[in-house]
Specification:
Mean pLDDT: 88
Low-confidence stretches: none
Number of strands: 23
CATH superfamily of the largest domain: P-loop containing nucleotide triphosphate hydrolases
CATH class of the largest domain: Alpha Beta
Radius of gyration: 27 Å
Largest sheet: 9 strands, mixed
Strand content: 25-35%
Length: about 450
Amino acid sequence: MAKAAQTFRCVECGWTTSKWVGRCGECQAWGTVDEATTARPGGTSPGPVAQSARPIGAVGLEPARSRPTGVEEFDRALGGGLVQGAVILLAGEPGVGKSTLLLDVTARWAKDAGRALYVTGEESAAQVRLRAERTGGIADDLFLAAETDLSAVLTHIDEVKPSLIVLDSVQTIASPTLDNAVGGVNQVREVAATLIHVAKERGIATILVGHVTKDGSIAGPRVLEHLVDVVLHFEGDRHSRLRMVRTVKNRYGPADEVGCFDLSDSGIESLADPTGLFLSRHAAPVPGTCVTVTVEGRRPLLGEVQALVAPSALNTPRRANSGLDSARVSMVLAVLERRGRVQLAMKDIYTSTVGGARLVEPAADLAVLIAVASAAAGQATPMGMIALGEVGLAGEIRRVTGTQRRLAEAERMGFSTALVPPDSGPVPSGIRVLEVENVGSALAVVADPASAFPVG
């Protein structure tokens, strides 16, 4: 008989210690160290296997093939659709539209692919039915249950025998074998582990809805994200109809995809071409605006940067931005003032994006610089122009990845001219490009756009 050794393990990160401590020595989390009894390494004997090892070429691919759900943008984020036995964790802020999206997914799945079970622990069955009536989510093979007990959920799975399960949410379900509070670390881990085991054993695609903390991370034990196959973040501004499903982890496809949706009172719809939402319409050129192309996952999206520069009545001028990375905006302003000789010291500067877009990658630096310089000089940039490039502290304009793909998207949307860094590679034939090496050459375009892009 192997001698048992008393150890204590952190349920968040797996760190172990020989004595109990209140704070994990690895992840610094409080109250996550629990007692665990494990056998010493020399005491493990061979045991039965689930299936004999086979040559890799003899392993079938069919169980790993995805099946479309019917929601195009959700399938895009998943890498093609749902895989048999896959477990997906979808996290997002309250009220962002997670339940509306998953109700639409389960309804389409029930109409085309097989039985679906929607388990809600946050609402009553009648409330979910009302939402389904409003969004057109009624299907004969869509089964609905309002439960907060894990054993009852397992009973529903045995009775319905679904091919898709949605649990909304994992923090509201409790295991009767544990005395911990609902939503606690141990409860969430136990519920998730049980459902993952059932999903893998029976080949049921399972979607778990997760809460997020105030800093935007997924609530509960960190090990939960390691156990599931796919982690999705559902993002969106309450004041905008645009919603994005961003892939963080995906064992069956790319881990950098983004799906775009339009959320309204009548439901949620996929947006195959959301670029127009991030651009404003101007009848004539307006100072303080510049368009750039950002890449969300593998999809290029046009975004507009707007800037306003005004004399400040305060001892400390105000700097405010919306939709941009504050640290990068501050850096661009410092470079513009130091390298470009643009006086911004006693000016209030406001920068923003259009349509609730988030432009945080370095490729938007040049657009921010041109928008601020244009606003400060009161000189409008040419209509139909975009700007791509990362601004360095020495004032140089650096190359960015995917320039050809970005320019192709700009050309498709009707833009005719572009400012790009030097040596950016081949460009589409339908768009004129001007290579700018540094801040000075970029500001020359703002000062005299006619000479930079002559007509004809």
